[in-house]
Specification:
Structural class: alpha/beta
Mean pLDDT: 90
Largest sheet: 8 strands, mixed, barrel
Shape: globular
Order of helices and strands: EEEEEEEHEEHEHHEHEHEHEHEEEHHH
CATH architecture of the largest domain: Sandwich
Number of domains: 4
CATH topology of the largest domain: Jelly Rolls
CATH superfamily of the largest domain: mth639 domain like
Radius of gyration: 23 Å
Helix content: 10-25%
Strand content: 25-35%
Number of strands: 17
Strand order of the largest sheet: 1-3-2-6-7-5-4-8
Low-confidence stretches: 329-336
Number of helices: 11
Distance between the termini: 40 Å
């Protein structure tokens, strides 16, 4: 089966420079000026499906005559043929963005190729293919709406596995032409570097999805279809009440978080101030807290990160949204969960023993061996 998703056919232009250090662009415009330093091809025409499944890891191959260059990036399922086709080094999915997180900018392309494309008679062939996923795979959590959603259709076509996080989303998946997979297939698909699309219509979460988010082999996560204030919570494995405190002054956040340990707190802060806020939250808690962070824009919030607050790689500029998880360790305000009851419920829901054990091993106080032995004992099997 071919991995090709789409081809773009462009031509050269006398003003092609290819010196931009952050982007590469294939423009549908027939004419440019010397200021368009990111453009490497003009009069771009799409050849292929009207709705290509542009999402997930991509390999983009540019060929003109004897010259060739390859770059890798992450597809943007909002992109549509006929608009600008911009490939960005950043993660920001602005209008016209074909792909983000690229490993190559226009300035990095071979100069021989750029000199060739400065000839208006030159032709540029751009081949866009699906590429292997990252180790651990990609989990896409998608909040669907009742009506047909073109972006969801693209994500369904690009996914290796599509599951429903709640019962109503099963019908939504069928309406978008996708085959409904099983939750029990999630771990194996991610382990092979696959792309798993988990669709929901409400705030419910599939137990397997939460187990994967809590496990040690956590995949990359994308959150689509939610406003930034909610998207930042969708990467956390914790199910806890959420206090939305985006109107709270950043300097007041540590006090608020410390006074409400039983809830997760979502707040906004400038990137320059967030490290100090999280450090104070940890100090008041007398121990590490887990948190999620996202850029406070619709496109920026599609790629939140989660982990220990002190270890998060934070964006360096702009306004951010942060969720500090509730206290769940012994001594916190959240009631302790009965692990035997939780494991029994997950196994009864056809979640594999491996998935349950990995999730349990990711919790404080559990080693991987202890978790496996415990899950096997609860399931009635003997530990090896």
């Amino acid at each position: 089966m071919s991995n090709e998703l789409l081809r773009l056919r462009c031509r050269g232009h006398a003003e092609v420079r290819g010196t931009h250090a952050k982007t590469v662009e294939f423009t549908s415009d027939a004419d440019i000026t010397g200021r368009a330093t990111c453009v490497v091809g003009v009069a771009a025409e799409a050849i292929g499906p009207a709705d290509p499944a542009i999402a997930g890891p991509l390999r983009i191959t540019m060929t003109s005559g004897e010259h060739r260059a390859v770059l890798h990036a992450t597809g943007n399922s909002r992109w549509r043929p006929g608009s600008a086709a911009v490939v960005r080094l950043s993660s920001e999915r602005l209008p016209g963005t074909l792909a983000t997180d690229a490993d190559t900018s226009a300035a990095d392309l071979p100069r021989e190729l750029m000199r060739t494309l400065a000839d208006p008679t030159a032709e540029l062939d751009v081949r866009i293919e699906r590429a292997p996923g990252p180790p651990g795979g990609v989990l896409v959590r998608y909040r669907a709406q009742p009506d047909h959603d073109r972006r969801l259709a693209v994500e369904c076509a690009a996914a290796d596995l599509v599951i429903a996080e709640d019962i109503p989303s099963r019908a939504v998946i069928a309406e978008h032409g996708a085959e409904l997979g099983l939750s029990s297939q999630v771990v194996a698909c991610l382990a092979e570097g696959g792309r798993v699309l988990a669709v929901s219509t409400a705030g419910l979460a599939d137990p397997t999805v939460l187990a994967v988010l809590a496990g040690p082999d956590r995949p990359a996560v994308e959150v689509l279809g939610l406003p930034p204030e909610l998207a930042v919570s969708a990467v956390s494995p914790q199910r806890a009440p959420v206090l939305l405190a985006t109107a709270t002054a950043p300097r007041e956040v540590p006090r608020l978080v410390g006074s409400r340990p039983e809830v997760a707190v979502v707040f906004g802060a400038p990137a320059a101030e967030l490290p100090k806020i999280l450090a104070e939250v940890d100090r008041q808690a007398a121990g590490p807290r887990t948190a999620a962070v996202a850029v406070a824009t619709t496109s920026g919030a599609e790629r939140p990160s989660w982990g220990r607050a002190a270890e998060l790689r934070l964006p360096r500029r702009g306004e951010l949204l942060c969720r500090v998880d509730a206290v769940t360790q012994p001594g916190g305000e959240v009631p302790a969960v009965d692990p035997a009851g939780l494991v029994t419920a997950l196994l009864a829901d056809s979640v594999s023993t491996r998935t349950v054990a990995l999730a349990l091993a990711g919790q404080p106080g559990w080693s991987r061996k202890q978790a496996y032995d415990f899950v096997l004992a609860v399931s009635g099997k003997q530990p090896k």
